[in-house]
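Ticket #4471: structure export looks truncated?
Reporter: QA, pipeline team
Priority: medium

Steps to reproduce: submit the single chain below to the structure queue and open the exported record.
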Amino acid sequence: MNTRLRYPLSLRWRLLLPLVVTAVIISILLFVTMRQVTKQAVQATQDALLSTAVSSILQQTRSRDSNVDIDLPYDIFTMLGAISQDKVYYRVDLDGVFLTGYEDLAPLMDGPLSDRPLLTSQNFKGEHVRQATIMQSFLIDGQAKMLRVTVAQTQLFQEAILREISRNASIIGLSFFGFAIFMALLVTTSFLRPINLLAGAVSRRGPHDLRDVKHPTPPELTPLLTSLNGFIGRLRSTLGQAETFIAEAAHHIRTPLSLVKSESQLVLRKSVDPDTRKHLHNVITSVDESIRSASQLLDHALVLYRNEQAQKDRLDLPLILTHVLSSMAPTADLKDITLKIDIDDSQPLWVMGDRVLIEVALRNLLDNAIKYSDPDMQVTISAKRRKEFATIAITDQGRGIKGLDMCSLNNRFRRGSNVDDVIGSGLGLAITSEICTAMGGELALTNNKGAGACAILLLPAC
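Actual output as written to the record:
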């Protein structure tokens, strides 16, 4: 069954999205509200002017005998027309009979008698107009007749005001939106700051620092901090168990194998049967190979463990070289190989690294040099400073390196093509290369011009 991967939104986006959506909605509502309020205000102003106009016409209309005298208030018409060059239209009817004005202006046909004009909107001569109509009864020749007055005005001014207000409302809405986004970013950053500070406090720790995290955090982060400290505690316990396991494994594996080797050698010395001696030689060879493989596997486990808890200290390199050389002297004496150390004593040579890992790397390189050298040969170890690195060179006079390049140094169980007759596991160089990487150094292998090989170890100097 295929499982579709889901990528959840980050906390930052989980906070930003609701704030951004809210800002967009408020900006739109602000724009619509400002435009609607302005439209209503302009509409109310125009309605008031039109109502005043029809009321003025009605007030200045008199019935005389069988006639109706209408005195048009041209001053009000002038005022209406002066507003943004709007056009003004009017019409007066008496009992449905057109008297004066624009005959094609359609008045409101029905409506109750009232002191307040009736206001409507319509299209007239291709333009949108707002009109007011008022009706009043007049007594003419003893008969009640209905006088209807209609005044209309185009809405150019209203449309111009709405365009201006819309532009200003857009600017205000966009400004508010920009300010809201800025504030949302500030709020989000402030909200995530405790998390970032906690992450920074944890990331600044070295790989060997397994203390509980004691960092001031908001109450909401307390469960996370508690879980993190619980995980660190379990990791600390696991690493301690791993160290104990490595030490016990080294003892429980090497001791029985050494005992088997000793007993086999004892039986070999007492045995006179050729077949028995041959089998015992095979047993001793296999035990030697097993001891070596077990030792290097344990060294590799130790390197992995120490890499997780790498403690880089300022170390006296000549002192370390002397100690390692002394520990390897018995192995060299068994093959009558001379170990020589060449160090410039005129100036101190210090390196920054883990003493245990550096000693493991040096022992592996010296062990290879001794193992692949013939009796009565010499292995030289030299050290000097080169810029920011301390250079350690281990040179032998053995068979050299064939079939192994620098790209395959990290490959476990890889050996040269010319060493099949020598016991080995192919882990030594891989372990040494991993140690160099962990220490921030490099490992290089070269063949000497005459015979033998040279292993160059670079470690950060201080």
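Status: closed, not a bug. The export was complete when the record was re-opened. Leaving a note from the reviewer for reference: The CA atoms of residues 253 and 266 lie 20 Å apart.
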